[in-house]
Amino acid sequence: MNKNEFAENLVKEFSVKHPNYSASVKKPEEAPVTDDVCAMFQKNRTVILVHMDAAFEDYCQHGIEVVLQKIDNSLTYCEKNGKKGEELVDTLDCYESIKDRLFIRAFNCETGRKKMENGVCRRTVGGVTLVLYVFLETTDGKIGSIMIPAKATYKWEKSYDEVFSAAMENTLKLFPPRITDLGTLLFKPYSSGEPFMENDFHTDADFLILISENRSFGATAIFFQKVAERISQIMGGDYYFAATSVHEVFVHKINTISPKNIKEGWNASTDAGISDGSLTSAEFLSDRVYRYDSRKKEIVTVL
What DSSP string runs through 1-13? Predict the structure, then answer.
């Protein structure tokens, strides 16, 4: 059974188990055409898309019941947070009521283009755009959030600089940036990394990995000026970096490796992530290699 056949079978199995819910197969509509087929499941007003890469891997290892249970859990979780979202929508035009929940997520400009059309996007850096979100809650390790629609900000009477400055500080509190190494990242999944924003942090390493304390959305922080500058202090000046996903960034001292070798490592890491199901299209951030210019205090694309 291939992935497309599995998607059709999964929809049938779900419909038998839940005759009052709806389920259908969704295929990519936009170029480039890929085999990234999804299945759509709906419970009341809650709709989720399940990418078949990870689901097919679960099926091969654990069977169809495990996949169906995960879908049930996701629908229940999303329905719960959807109600919270509906409550928040009524207050989105009041800045004071949600300002402490605002945070920033980083998206790939191409893969996230359709999603970001109605959002509030602050700036684009080498194919990555920073987008304004509102935090709901974290349940069972899953982060509930909704994108702020641009029209909701019209009544705020706040400048974008003020809004994004507040959202940046919230982001650093919700997802505190941390530094780790490759061994810890791979073999200690519950390690939260080392805090580094304070001046007493020091390392002689030529290579480090930026994550967040809860290992979610850790790559966003590299695009914040205060974080980029702090890493520059730690690395002794300019540095290269590449995002392996929205969750982590690999950082290299400038004279220890070439951008070409970084890209080759990125390719290998990405291929492995896609192969084992640990990297989904939703978690992809960028395929570029960047350099932080400590003199100009800016990020530039080098490859």
Answer: --HHHHHHHHHHH
Give the separation between CA 3 and CA 159, rounded to whole angstroms: 47
Higher pLDDT, 294 or 120: 294
What is the Cα–Cα distance from 239 to 15, expressed in whole angstroms? 52
> Other CB atoms closer than 10 Å to residue 174's CB: what's the count?
20
pTM of the model: 0.73
Query: Which of 148, 139, 192 minimizes the C-alpha distance to 166?
Result: 148
For residue 167, the one-letter residue type is A
The domain segmentation of the chain, as residue ranges, is: 3-88, 95-174, 177-301
Task: Specify the DSSP class assigned to residue 21.
Answer: S
The alpha-helical segments, DSSP class H, found in the chain are: 3-17, 52-62, 64-89, 95-98, 113-116, 160-174, 182-187, 225-235, 259-276
Q: How confident is the model at residue 32 (pLDDT cuts 50, 70, 90)?
A: very low
The answer to whether the CB of 68 falls within 8 A of the CB of 13 is: yes
